[in-house]
Specification:
Length: 154
């Protein structure tokens, strides 16, 4: 089934790239202040969600599959007191997506079912983890859309 393997890699890589493009599109509509400020007393800022997605991909795909050595500080993703500029935050997310896409394209059919374990996940193979990361990114893009609509409303 080489066609299925090639299709799977192509579809997953395209999903990560499309997700990244959407985050860039949404983030570019916000001022630097809006990026790092919560429009509600609850939840997260757009920028902190960018940091969170970066940490998620760098840890679950980068460190655990690609062995990049990334060490995650998940709590800081939501509380970073001195956040980077929008450009730097988005660049870091772009770098994390590039690693994810590279990993996806490098998987052989046998690699997808290799055992997987990591902190805070019950995924047992690589395919499950990569799919979860793509879905996780989609989930937070939904929150980002809501944040952008609220800033526009205000």
């Amino acid at each position: 089934m080489p066609e299925l393997d090639a299709t799977l890699a192509s579809v997953l890589a395209a999903r990560f790239d499309a997700n990244l493009a959407r985050v860039f599109e949404l983030g570019s509509a916000l001022s630097e202040k809006q990026l790092w400020t919560k429009p509600y007393p609850y939840g997260n800022s757009f920028g902190h969600l960018v940091l969170h997605l970066t940490g998620n991909l760098n840890y679950y795909i980068g460190a655990q599959i690609a062995n990049t050595g990334y060490v995650r500080d998940r709590n800081r993703e939501f509380t970073e007191p001195s956040p980077p500029s929008r450009e730097e935050a988005l660049k870091r997310l772009g770098d994390a997506v590039a690693v994810a896409v590279e990993v996806v394209r490098a998987q052989s059919p046998a690699d997808w079912s290799k055992g997987y374990s990591a902190v805070n996940t019950n995924c047992t193979n690589r395919l499950d983890m990569v799919l979860q990361c793509a879905a996780h990114m989609q989930h937070h893009i939904g929150q980002m859309i809501y944040i952008c609509h609220e800033w526009q409303r205000q």
